[in-house]
Amino acid sequence: MIDLDKIKKTIDKHQLIEIGDKIVVAVSGGPDSVCLLHILNELKETYDIKLYGAHLNHNFRGIEAQKDAQYVAKLCEDLKIMCFIKSIDVTQHAKEHGYTLEEAGRILRYQFFDEVSEKVGAHKISVAHNLNDQAETLLMRMLRGTGIQGLTAIHHRRDKIIRPLLDVNRNDIEEYCKIHGLAPRIDHTNLQPIYHRNKIRLELIPSLEEYNPNITETLAKTAELLKMDSDFIDLQANDIYNLLIKKDKVNRLTFPIHGINKLHPSLLTRILRLAAEDLVGKREVLEYKHIQSLTELIQKDVTGKRVELPMGITVFTNYEKLVFTTEKEGNKLSFSYFLKDDTFTDIPEIDGRIGYYIIKRDQLLDIPKDIYKKAFDWDKIKGKLIVRNRRDGDRFWPLGMNGTKKLKDLFIDYKVERYNRDRIPLLCDEDEIIWVIGYRISDLFKVTKATERILIIEFEQVNNA
């Protein structure tokens, strides 16, 4: 028998509902969802909540599916709950997108619930998973193969999805419906072993009950214990992730490889999953095979090696760094601007600006030591000053060297990441590179005892955040 106090205990323990919440309740018309709607309606004054019913007709069962929708509409009307009903061809959607019927149904259901939630301004979406669903899910994932996170099965709450009945046995749900005269709809396909979950429910669990009559409760308890351990590891992984991650403005996350390559595989796996989720805003992007590929990439630590992942994510190693990005190659950055005297020239492509002025030698007190402010011999400069980024074949005469060096080799010496090389501004005259800004000046333009006029030039990074 379902005790409302037990449901309230679950709600309060897992913080499923807050006072004044608006909640969309997923109602299929079956015993679980009908029980859920009725119970939440009984508790609406306790939590001062506003309920909305939502029913999606999958069009799997013809006239029976239409009767389900009619039943849900009538139930909501009797309970004075606003109801939203939508019909969609799930079979066609599955064919068009290459999903199984179960996958397509789940995706479209939650899209619909999100639509209703947004329309009414709801804070939560309540679904009717119960103790038996928990046990079945755990067995499904064990048979498929999964780690500890997968074995935690269904959670009481994930984001705005809440499951108040997750601690309740299906038999108690059916009894509750009888006592309150709810007469829910019965989907007879659930009584046939035609789907994977149905086979587990109808064949595997009854076999396991021969060894443990309380197997459903045991499996659900196992999932809860595993969740407790998994949550602890997640906390450690999140702390490490936040400590090591560097977030760039251009869809890129960077880790120091020597900060993660010694981590326990359990922590490393979670950190890699967090990075993918952080980048594309979606959970469970990476499968086991992807984690294996990334682990090998980290262990080899060879600059330039990369792995392509789902949702357009590319991961590559670059000078002892592991980089996650959704940027696409081929969008080559290019800029070139003539500089104007006594004013700053904006370089919007790199959120920077550069300015200069000219003074006499006796006005210079000290040679600037700042990496973004330098002094040059003005009289050695030919033509106009230009700021641009790199070009194929660029060469440069670094200060203190006896000859030129390929700009590419200079970047390699300084371990400038490949994806950043196009963003390095170069100060040039019409013949030579004068300054690789932020790195080296040219020996050809250094200030000497013979210098009469001095060019003072300064680069600034503009903060557009």
TrEMBL record:
Free-text note on domains in this protein's UniProt record: The N-terminal region contains the highly conserved SGGXDS motif, predicted to be a P-loop motif involved in ATP binding.
Bilayer-crossing regions: none
Ranges of residues in domain Lysidine-tRNA(Ile) synthetase C-terminal: 385-457
Enzyme class: ligase
One Pfam match: TilS_C
GO biological process: tRNA modification
E.C. code: 6.3.4.19
Highest taxon, organism lineage: Bacteria
Family per similarity comment: Belongs to the tRNA(Ile)-lysidine synthase family.
Record protein name field: tRNA(Ile)-lysidine synthase
UniProt keywords, alphabetically: ATP-binding, Cytoplasm, Ligase, Nucleotide-binding, tRNA processing
Recorded catalytic activity of this chain's protein: cytidine(34) in tRNA(Ile2) + L-lysine + ATP = lysidine(34) in tRNA(Ile2) + AMP + diphosphate + H(+)
GO cellular component term of the entry, any: cytoplasm
Cellular location(s): Cytoplasm
Organism, as annotated: Alkaliphilus peptidifermentans DSM 18978
Described function: Ligates lysine onto the cytidine present at position 34 of the AUA codon-specific tRNA(Ile) that contains the anticodon CAU, in an ATP-dependent manner. Cytidine is converted to lysidine, thus changing the amino acid specificity of the tRNA from methionine to isoleucine.
HAMAP family noted in UniProt: tRNA_Ile_lys_synt
Molecular-function GO terms, alphabetical: ATP binding; tRNA(Ile)-lysidine synthase activity
